[in-house]
Amino acid sequence: MIFLFFGILINPPSLIHEPCRARTGSSKQTRRFSLVTNNLESLATILHEARKAAKPIPQISKNLSSLTRDDAYSIQEKQWQFRQAAGESLVGWKMGLTSEAKRRQMNLDSPLYGFLTDRMEVKNGGVFSLAQSIHPKIEPEIAFLLSRDLQGSVTRAQVLESCAGVASCMEILDSRYDQFKYFSMEDVIADNSSSSHFVVGEWKKDFRDLDLRHLQMKMSVNGELTQAGISSDISGDPVISVIELCEMLFQRGQILKAGSVVLAGAATTAVELKPGMKVKLEVDGLADVVLSVGGMR
Ligand code: 0L1
Ligand code: MG
Asked: For residue 50, which of 190, 150, 151, 171 has the smallest C-alpha distance?
């Protein structure tokens, strides 16, 4: 694996294309695409293995400045294919960097998304083992459950009509990069937007009377309040995260399918997870969500 990684650093995509094009003399566009794709697949493999082994790797953009956002989403999608081949199923999506404060804190410029699988879900009230992570953090979010497909450009009303439930939720972030540090948006996107696990509270089906823009959110650790925010800290309105996700997926030729869970993004900064923590999120009008932290890293 180490050889593979250094091989890619020595031969970034922009350097690999040229000699191959000259050699084959075939359609430049097609040839170039397949070579880039092969290389992106190698990067996806490296990130996939780093996650499985819980061993961090150097940031990929460090030596691959030519990586585009589209390349990064291709790397992310490839990792989903690896996980699908290993028997995981897609349960939804996470939106990230949905608050201006967080974007500024991370020095990154726009919202991004990642995929969620069934094996990433931790039961509400369950135990999350640190053994499977590198440097996990937790953050308070709002989740939506879709009852109808949504595609492309949609309105707030359409999202709400297509929503079967709203719940409080916590996302466990982890980065497969050294020191949970990025050099670019492309690094994060390629790494499934730092998603690791998530825990969702009971779905509230009759949420129409809730003002989704003004829900107080309080996250506590072992009974002590650590993070407090309001749902408008998430994209100005968490429903906007769903609208943006739908547009971003459409640009990648995908739709938001009925049955999907959508994590709208965090209302506050994340808290580092440590053994023995009991983390609880309380959101106005929604059921509490709780997670205990076990295991050693
Ligand atoms: O879910 C998020 O807002 C995080 C996205 C990536 C930035 C980070 O790793 O904190
Ligand atoms: Mg998040």
From this structure: 190
Question: What domains lie within the chain, and their CATH numbers?
Answer: 89-294 (3.90.850.10)
132-155 pLDDT, tens digit each: 899 999 999 999 999 999 999 999
Model-wide pTM > 0.85: yes
Rounded to 5, what percent of the chain is helix, strand, coil? 40, 30, 35
Cβ–ligand 1 contact at 97 (below 6 Å): yes
> For residue 270, which atom of ligand 1 is closest to its CA?
10
**Rounded mean pLDDT of the chain?**
88
Smallest-distance ligand from the CA of 102? 1
Q: What is the DSSP letter of 283?
A: E
Question: Taking the chain, what is the end-to-end CA distance rounded to the nearest angstrom?
Answer: 22
Query: Which residue's alpha carbon is at the smallest distance from atom 5 of ligand 1?
Result: 96
DSSP single-letter state for residue 220? E
Rounded distance between C-alpha atoms, residue 145 and residue 32, angstroms = 40
Mutational test site, ligand 1, from 69, 100, 105, 106, max ligand atoms within 8 Å of CB: 106
Residue 121 β-bridge partners: 198
107, 116, 137, 188: which to mutate for ligand 1, most atoms within 8 A of CB?
Answer: 188
Distance 30 CA to ligand 2 centre (A): 37
DSSP string computed for 128-190: EEGGG-SS-EEEEEEEEEESS-B-SS--HHHHHHTEEEEEEEEEEE--SBGGG--SSHHHHHH
CB 265 near ligand 1, within 6 Å: yes
Give the count of alpha carbons within 13 A of 211, CB side only.
7
With a cut of 70, say whether residue 47 has pLDDT above it. yes
Atom of ligand 1 nearest to the CA of 137: 10
Residues with Cβ within 8 Å of 10's Cβ and at least 6 positions away in sequence, in order, are none
